[in-house]
Amino acid sequence: MPILVTKNSPICIRPSSPTTPVTPATNNAAAVVALSSFDKCMPPVPITMLLVFDHPIVNPTETIKTSLSRALAHYPPIAGRLIGDVITCTDDGVTFVAASAAKSTLEEAMAVLPQTDLAIGYPNPRCHGGADEPLLLMQVTEFACGGFVVAVTWNHLLADAAGMAQFVHAVGELARGGGISVSPSVRLWDDVSLPGVPSSAIAAQRSTLDFDPLPLARLDVVVLSTLISRVKAAAGEFAGGEPPCTVFEAVAAVLWRCRVRAVMSSSAGDDSPAPLTIPCNVRKLAGAPVGYYGNCVVMLVVPAAAGVIANSDVGDLVRMIRSAKAKLKLMATVAVVEGKEEAAPAVWYEALAVSSWRNMGMEATDMGGGAPVRVTWQPERTMVPACVVCPPRRDGREDGSVDVSSMFVREGHVDAFKDELARMIDDGSEE
């Protein structure tokens, strides 16, 4: 029997206490917030995060709706509007939808429901800003078992995943009747606290908008803990007392090689570029103040030819990733300011972006009944082939296996990718 999700009409949630209009001349709280150069590097596309809660709370929809309003009072730009390159703190609010699947359990629904049932979407692949477009959308869907899903969709120009994790965590703290533990830093209209990204880098990052979203397959991937352990062993020890291979590095190397092998259209000697791009949170390196929730990400590029990736030992791929990460501190400071950043080759389907939502605190969000059993990225469309390494799950992933939400292969390459991953798992083919 099909699972029916009933959605109420969207409503507008405004801050519980109005933001006092302030002009830039007062040099106080921000009524107008200029996008930072880090913000401008991001494409204006929607990002959707699903937080799945299995423990009931009293009236989740009303509880979260109230706490959302209170949280917006601490984060005025989120309730504002994007006009050109500035956010005006207008208190126009965010869009909220209450939904229910009264005859279905959470477990049944999560296996089959598409994103369009669990989240509100923007009408277009790109966010256009303007007085009529909110910067954040939220849907709370309640299920017969008492579980519920909170879906948060936002314009990437507003915040990166770490910044949104901070905001959602604050919503949870307020839902539990407490105060917020991390005070958001005031975003000033003339904020120069972060190093500037040169215009050439901004143009390079925004060039992804030149591509129209193609129909890539939505694919949930599980990288088993046994494979991760083998990859770590294959990577060996690093010189200079560096820490060993991380879970993320191992997962990224596995996905990179399996995907390249799956989509290669020529021989294993193919020298076409197939770069790996890793968005890296550089708040500490860039000197961002505590509580900063705007974008503060540097795109780390690991350049390589498709044939090299396809034929490399996966441990060698980990070492390539680690070598690129060694440049991160320079990229976040001097290199960013002086424009010495390395740009990815001008390719689209051949490239892969791998993000990590681990260690950002999303999995600790608590609306009153405990942490979510899982947190996932829910793409409806993407400007580049991409995936997100999700936070650890509490419902059957206690062995250390890792979930990945992806939209990085065409439908015709799904089986080939699955075969490559299965071969690596079954055959121990890290070489």
TrEMBL record:
InterPro entries attached to this UniProt entry: CAT-like_dom_sf, Plant_acyltransferase
Pfam families from the UniProt entry: Transferase
A molecular-function term among this protein's GO annotations: acyltransferase activity, transferring groups other than amino-acyl groups
Gene3D superfamilies xref list: Chloramphenicol acetyltransferase-like domain
Segments passing through the bilayer: none
Family the UniProt entry places it in: Belongs to the plant acyltransferase family.
Full protein name: Uncharacterized protein
Organism name: Digitaria exilis
